[in-house]
User: What shape does this take?
Amino acid sequence: MSAATDTPTERVTHALVRDVDLTPFREAAGSGAGDPLVLGLITLDNGEDHTKPNTLGPIGMAELRTALEGLLERARAGEVHAIGVTGKPFHFAAGADLHGAASIRTTSDARAIARQGHDTYRLLLDAPVPTFAFVSGVALGGGMELALSCSYRTVMSSVRNLGLPEVALGLIPGWGGTFLAPGVVGIEKALELIVGNPLRNNKQLTAPAAAEMGLMDVVLEPADFLAESLRWATAVLTGAVEVSRPEPAPAEHWAAAVEAVRAQVDARLHGAAPAPYEALDLLALSAQRDREASFAAEDEALARLLVSPEFKASMHAFDLTTRRAKRPVGAPSSDEARPVRSVGIAGAGLMASQLALLLARRMKVPVVMRDLDDERVQRGLGFVAAEVDKLRGQGRIGDDEANRITGLVTGTTDLADLADRDLVIEAVFEELDVKKRVFAELEQVISPETILATNTSALSVTAMAADLAHPERVVGLHFFNPVAQMPLVEVVRAERTDDAAYATAFAVAKACGKSAIAVADRPGFVVNRLLVRMLGEVLGSLEDGTDVETADAALRPLGLPMGPFQLLQLVGPAVAEHVLDTLRENLGERYPTSPGLRRMVTEGAPFVVVEGRPTAASPVDPGIARYFGSRGGHGQTADELLARVRDALAEEVRLMLEEKVVTDAADIDLAMILGAGWPFHLGGITPYLQRTGAL
Assistant: This one.
């Protein structure tokens, strides 16, 4: 029952009813005239421009129910032979009015919201005639549950936001989703839809992906979508098209599937957030295929969650990512930005190659990567080609798009090939002297109008630009790894960065589909400064004698995407040590040395036992204990270490605000949510630190 609204006041979505004569579609298909065939069509529309989603608050839901009751009465009288529900262009329904839901204070009021949705959708489920959802745009949460309550579903091919994301917001699908989804797509796919996708950075489905899953019955092109949906509905009604549904899985298979996902949730959250567990319990109950029992259980679960602190915290995080992220505080006017029609990248390593792919795909501009030798250049181009092939194989792009992207990305060893670029981004080794040398070389060949950007994650942009003839055109554009998945860009204004360079950086981030945050040129900026401080405290605790298992478990109550040792391995022990040393040089001894980390880097020892890329579930190697304990002692308990980390983070947040690294604390929260996966259920790092008394 999720949605986005602009104010706590309900924006009423009206249910507009009209009759559609399907007889011409039947005749066109050669089925003959026969008796009249009438579909009663409900169009959901809030009467505003297409950027405003349809949402269903109490008034809108009541209006939908009235419309359905009228059509059902006519269906029983034989005047209507089918019922259809559609939306306005680009929006079907985004579910409940979340901000209205966030104002609920009692479980009885929360229960009433759940029951109102069930009572309305039950009319569709029990209708005496076939029902159709013509999904014309975004269908999330309660909007998707509305579609699932219909007998059949068409979807416009251009739709990219389909799903049941409630768990990501601290809720559960509360209007029938946990019962209906398994009946439509089977239990494994329902688990992916309701639990897996929301916990996977709130992944949403495109129309083709939803059809492949079985969530939608047919994908139709945007041109004449409604007419084609009506034509398809006519074919279903006349028997020309048949739609099958999966048979329910055996009880033991159903239970095993739920428990397997429960183990995955435990490995990630360790009980830190209630919503995924409530959803799993409901999906387990749905194996009984008792609709009313499932609906009653959804009522009670939603009543608990709507008044929970986790939901309130999630709404704060939701507002940050849907509002503040779209309007960066401190960003200059976009009118100041220079056009970027071509891009050069200094480097062809992993980060450079990821940036080249992103820029070519999103900005649709030619990108050239330059590196020192042809072997490195070809390796970078090979990475881009392989990633494009993956996107094509997954059906996310077609052949034409794949050829366009690979055609836009080229490589060179000649620095002069970057001369005519509007923007050049350096993505070389994270060493100040190396970056300064690259910038000095670039300045000899590029136009005076070219913007120079650095992808540094921690170093001083001001220092990089200090010896240049035109330091005013240098700006920081810190993309996060992996570039395709991470939504954050930290935009860094150095001492002499001018408005044109600064505005261009924000424009590039936006064109790439990223959320940008304005940060001052201070070591580590926001995300790395806080993450490295946190990891430094964990490593320091190991040096003090804390055992590895305790240190690994200490941060689990936060429900972070990865434990500290998995994160250290993902970053790379050598990189982690380098950044820790850099921040210590610039920020002081609160970023301490770690002799144990130094020994691990020297010996090439990993933190986790893993084949390939480390994941959140990669087991920590208990043998790393032999590298630590340099300060002796008995170490700390898990609770003591968690308190130590909280106090350290609170100190760093206070210092960052004093140094004006960002405009205010909300941008620290947003940066950690988007750049570090800080969980929604904590509501942002500063509210969490305030609730726990650390800040």
Notes: The mean pLDDT is 92. The first helix runs from residue 23 to 28. The chain is about 45% helix and 10% strand. Residues 66 and 330 are 47 Å apart (CA to CA).
